[in-house]
Amino acid sequence: MALHNSVGNSSQTSTDSEIALSVNRVAFRVPSFIPADPELWFAMVESSFANAKVTTDATKFSCVIEALEPRYALEVRDIIVNKPERDAYEILKAELVKRLSTSKEQKTRRLLEMEELGDRKPSQFLRHLKGLAGSTVPESMLRTLWFARIPTSMQAILAAHRDLSLEKLADIADSIMDLTDNCPRVAETMLSPGDQLAAQLQQLTLTLQREIASIKQEVSELRYQHKQRSRSRSSSRPRFRNRSASSGSCWYHRKFGSNARKCTQPCSFQTTDSGNATGSR
Fold first, then answer.
1. Judging by beta carbons within 10 Å of its beta carbon (0-12, 13-18, 19+), is residue 220 exposed, middle or buried?
2. Which residues does 52 contact at the CB level (< 8 Å), separation at least 6?
3. 138 within 8 A of 182, measured Cβ to Cβ
């Protein structure tokens, strides 16, 4: 009688477990698939598995397949058609996350490559890129994209600090940009390579123009001084000759006048003294 009761109790327990499992399966619902974030979706699904006490690999595998839309099921067609003998759910999960993330990553990269710094600070631009990238783009790729969008002058400075975190690099870049607001010369270096070359050529042209103007001014001044000296020499000689010619007197009479004791001919000096002969001394 006791044996009969024991068998009956065991049978009843098994039946109750099956009923409970059936009820759990009926109540269990897989969340709608999230293609933009498959990792998040699997975390939600596994939470539902735990609540519904779904533990078998085959059941998990089937639930995931049922939740996938056809276009996403095509991403893992090879696994669905050729179901792995062991760990089918884990393999399906890993491949679905990997393949959809790769596709998403490529799309996100193309989107990020179109973004420009504009009038934003480097740290603001970094936060903007992170917002667009979400969790599908690794930081290494985000770092490369961000680095390529900041001015080349910043890249040269930050290149020596690549071991720092991306957020710290963005803070340093902000400080560099703040300095450019009060330093026009540094601001010029923030231009693109093409603009920098144009600015350098313009500056070189202005410098050459100033130097040429300065040389022309110096040459003009030298010519003027030379002309003035030439005029001075040429004008002083005729005056002496003219004085000599106009007076008609010899050197002694020009120097000493009527007190001269000598006279050289020709000399037209005349004295008021009637006793002195003209130019006869």
1. exposed
2. 24, 25, 27, 28
3. no
Report which of 136, 139, 135 is spatially closest to residue 169, judged by C-alpha positions: 139
Residues 102 and 159 in one domain: no
Q: What is the pTM of this model?
A: 0.36
* Interhelix angle 139-149/88-113, nearest 10 degrees: 0
At 176-203, the pLDDT tens digits run 777 765 555 544 455 556 666 677 777 7
Counted domains in the chain? 2
Is residue 56 left, alpha or beta, with left meaning phi > 0 and alpha meaning psi from -120 to 50? beta
CA 222 to chain centre: 50
pLDDT in tens, 208-240: 777 777 777 877 877 877 777 777 666 555 554
Decide if 7 is inside a domain. Answer: no
Judge if 65 and 122 occupy the same domain. no
Q: Which of 201, 176, 203, 172 is nearest to 190 (CA)?
A: 176
Is position 168 within any domain? yes
Cα dihedral sign for 68, 74, 80, 81? positive
Length of the chain: 281
Contact between 41 and 92 under an 8 Å Cβ cutoff? The reply is no
Per-residue pLDDT averaged across 70-80, rounded? 92
Tell me which amino acid residue 39 is: E
The parent domain of residue 60 ranges over: 38-107
Give the domain-ending residue among 55, 77, 107: 107
What is the secondary structure of 105-126 as a DSSP string? Answer: HHHHHHHHHT---TTS-HHHHH
